[in-house]
Amino acid sequence: MAKIYKDKDVDLSILSKKVVAVLGYGIQGRAWALNMRDSGVKIIIGVRPGKSFDLARQEGFEVYSVSEAVKRADIIAVLLPDMTQPSVWSAEIAPNLRRDMNVIFAHGFNIRFGLIKPPNDVDVVLIAPKAPGKAVRDEFVRGWGVPALVAVHQDFTGNALKTALAVAKANGFTRVGVIETTFAEETETDLIGEQNVLVGGLLQLLKYGFEVMVELGYQPEVAYFEAINEAKLIMDLIWERGLTGMLLGVSETARYGGLTVGPFVINEDVKRRMREAAERVRNGEFAREWVNENQRGALKLRELLKQVQNSQVERIGEELRMMMRSG
Ligand SMILES: NC(=O)C1=CN([C@@H]2O[C@H](COP(=O)(O)OP(=O)(O)OC[C@H]3O[C@@H](n4cnc5c(N)ncnc54)[C@H](O)[C@@H]3O)[C@@H](O)[C@H]2O)C=CC1
Ligand SMILES: CC(=O)[C@](C)(O)C(=O)O
Ligand SMILES: [Mg+2]
Ligand SMILES: [Mg+2]
């Protein structure tokens, strides 16, 4: 059984005289900063000038450049985009690090693939929420949290894990459960998970499910309700009650059809491809491809995003979501 930390195992007081700099005020950064401030931790923000900077100010934070925030902090949470971290690290973070500081990542990418090499005299830890930033904040406000992983890459002070767990607690993660892992396990499973299932696999499955019905001549609105909107509600059943609970919460007809046809559609070939994709993560091929793509200006990423934005399913979805929200 994995080692799991809960609120009762963690002492927040280790943060009481510390200043935590949240670097980046985006999807994760904003959620972490608001959560930790609500937990009574002294937070400052380090970010470049722009929308995030203005928003952080509006929301009442002291906001600085990344360099200045690192200078003023004891603990830094590096919540910048993965592909931006290496250059900001060498230009603004590394020159301002001091002995005994604690450096937190929310994803192990740059450490696992060797793109950032921290000095020996700081702690380097990982607190990886297993949730999108919106849930990190929404769940905290609800009085609960999301699960997260914690790992120690470097323990210079002897307090690396304790400090990381305190930051996790201040974010509400230990209300749910924080599992101890390694940078390698977090990085690889996170990438494999988002590619095969959460982002890649799911999107493609929903899109094909929608398209097959539309191509057969059914109304796109009906296809959207069936293949996409209801997918959320079925996922909620799985989330609350498990796979068996979901199966017992749908009709007997759906249960039989699903259990027999599912493995025909998502077959062993798909599983083989999932293994291939996982191998490309593990051997560093995906990381190299993404770094190169990014260095060329992420043109392919922008083009692929545009294709999704302009697809029929998105137009239908936007209308229906608006309709369902009002009234
Ligand atoms: N998005 C999510 O829900 C999750 C993200 N993570 C990890 O969290 C980290 C942050 O990711 P996101 O929150 O998605 O990033 P983001 O793209 O939402 O936010 C980036 C922030 O960094 C700032 N920024 C960008 N370039 C900068 C620069 N050169 N100098 C100073 N500030 C700069 C932006 O203004 C923005 O405030 C990544 O390591 C990611 O893998 C982990 C779990 C989930
Ligand atoms: C939201 C999350 O955990 C992801 C999918 O791994 C990410 O945004 O990188
Ligand atoms: Mg993730
Ligand atoms: Mg990820």
From TrEMBL:
Keyword Endoplasmic reticulum in annotation: no
Metal-binding found in the keyword field: yes
Residue numbers binding substrate: S251
Catalytic activity: (2R,3R)-2,3-dihydroxy-3-methylpentanoate + NADP(+) = (S)-2-ethyl-2-hydroxy-3-oxobutanoate + NADPH + H(+); (2R)-2,3-dihydroxy-3-methylbutanoate + NADP(+) = (2S)-2-acetolactate + NADPH + H(+); (2R)-2,3-dihydroxy-3-methylbutanoate + NAD(+) = (2S)-2-acetolactate + NADH + H(+)
UniProt keyword list: Amino-acid biosynthesis, Branched-chain amino acid biosynthesis, Magnesium, Metal-binding, NADP, Oxidoreductase
Listed SUPFAM superfamilies: 6-phosphogluconate dehydrogenase C-terminal domain-like, NAD(P)-binding Rossmann-fold domains
Binding site for Mg(2+) 2: D190, E226, E230
Binding note for cofactor: Binds 2 magnesium ions per subunit.
Residues that, per the record, bind Mg(2+) 1: D190, E194
Pfam families noted in UniProt: KARI_C, KARI_N
Domain (KARI N-terminal Rossmann): residue spans on this chain: 2-181
GO biological process, one term: L-valine biosynthetic process
Residues of the KARI C-terminal knotted domain: 182-327
Entry's Gene Ontology molecular function annotations: isomerase activity; ketol-acid reductoisomerase activity; magnesium ion binding; NADP binding
Location of the active site: H107
Function, in words: Involved in the biosynthesis of branched-chain amino acids (BCAA). Catalyzes an alkyl-migration followed by a ketol-acid reduction of (S)-2-acetolactate (S2AL) to yield (R)-2,3-dihydroxy-isovalerate. In the isomerase reaction, S2AL is rearranged via a Mg-dependent methyl migration to produce 3-hydroxy-3-methyl-2-ketobutyrate (HMKB). In the reductase reaction, this 2-ketoacid undergoes a metal-dependent reduction by NADPH to yield (R)-2,3-dihydroxy-isovalerate. Involved in the biosynthesis of branched-chain amino acids (BCAA). Catalyzes an alkyl-migration followed by a ketol-acid reduction of (S)-2-acetolactate (S2AL) to yield (R)-2,3-dihydroxy-isovalerate. In the isomerase reaction, S2AL is rearranged via a Mg-dependent methyl migration to produce 3-hydroxy-3-methyl-2-ketobutyrate (HMKB). In the reductase reaction, this 2-ketoacid undergoes a metal-dependent reduction by NADPH or NADH to yield (R)-2,3-dihydroxy-isovalerate.
UniProt-recorded name of the protein: Ketol-acid reductoisomerase (NADP(+))
Organism the protein comes from: Vulcanisaeta moutnovskia (strain 768-28)
Species lineage: Archaea, Thermoproteota, Thermoprotei, Thermoproteales, Thermoproteaceae
Protein's gene: ilvC
